[in-house]
């Protein structure tokens, strides 16, 4: 089964400046703008905002 361009793999980078990142997939039709999620940053030891990096 081929990977769809509708759901690309995106990298979420920490805004805390620690260099931590998560990898996820998103639906471009539902969320065309950059994804922002609050996730746990193990280097910072707390939940911080992660933004989509291109």
TrEMBL record:
Start and end residues of each stretch annotated as Disordered: 15-34
UniProt xrefs under InterPro entries: Ribosomal_bL33, Ribosomal_bL33_CS, Ribosomal_bL33_sf, Ribosomal_zn-bd
Keyword Ribonucleoprotein: yes
The entry's keywords: Ribonucleoprotein, Ribosomal protein
Biased composition (Polar residues): 15-24
Annotated Gene Ontology cellular component terms: cytosolic large ribosomal subunit
GO process annotations (BP): translation
GO molecular-function terms, A-Z: structural constituent of ribosome
Origin: domain of life: Bacteria
Family: Belongs to the bacterial ribosomal protein bL33 family.
NCBIfam families (alphabetical): PRK00595.1, rpmG_bact
The protein's name: Large ribosomal subunit protein bL33
Species this protein is from: Streptomyces microflavus
């Amino acid at each position: 089964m081929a990977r769809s361009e509708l759901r690309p793999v995106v990298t979420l980078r920490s805004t805390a400046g620690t260099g931590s990142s998560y990898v996820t997939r998103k639906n471009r039709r539902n969320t065309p703008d950059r994804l922002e999620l609050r996730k746990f940053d193990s280097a910072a030891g707390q939940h911080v905002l992660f933004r989509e990096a291109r």
